[in-house]
Amino acid sequence: MKAFSSVQLDLLYKGFKYFVYSLLTLNIILFFQEESLATQQTFSQGITIKDIIQGFAATIDTAAWVLLLLLFELETAVLQPNTLSKPRVKISFALIRVFSYGFIIYAFYGYISKMLLISGISPYPIDDVCALIAQNFSTIDNLDEYPMLVVDSCSHLNNQELFKLNGQKIIGTADQWSAIQWLTRVDVINSITWIMVVLVLEADVRLQQQSRFEGTLVSVSKLIKILLYTILFAAATYWGFLGDFLDFWDAFMWLVAFFFIEMNLFKDDQAEPNIR
Known about the structure:
The chain is mainly alpha-helical. Helices cover 71% and strands 4% of the residues.
């Protein structure tokens, strides 16, 4: 009975883990939908190939990270060492890594570009904001959420100091612009922090495969990652209070997902083999 309960718990654990991975995969579609709507306002003249990374940074970033997450899962929980040591597997994984990291770094550049784009605002003095309704102006709800200007929103903006995104028809108050500008900065901080986390994880995995991941190396790795995960948790909390739900949800799910990778990495070598 005890062994049966252990099997059940293991199945539940794996089921929950892969459910989280599935939700993160779904987020690719959700980010694409959100950013598609946003680019209609931030790139109202049409988005070019070189602007795609600014407009779809979160979509590209999430897709690359999902691919990398699955790679870590295969290395730390699914495939056996003798399989991982096969030349064709090593080459395939190396190519996937190059592809994933290339897009992750590309997305990081996109977050920086987006931060600079949103920072480009200028004062926009106007007596009657409602006169802009017929000119297809948009307002600010949140980052990547720019609803069209309507009677209710224009009356709220009247008699306030407004700023306009350079080259686009998006207006908002100083506080509104400041809020989404800080969100873009958090995007950049979050992105570079995750890159640092995964570099440490890469070192952990390589050392574990060489049976050298022990003692001081484990302690140093844990200390660095505690600091990095604290920053990521702070970013998720910030999005929870000041961002939109999708950003918070995605950040939280990624923390849960990499908790599973950490569990894979630090599992007891003497534990019973995982059920495949």
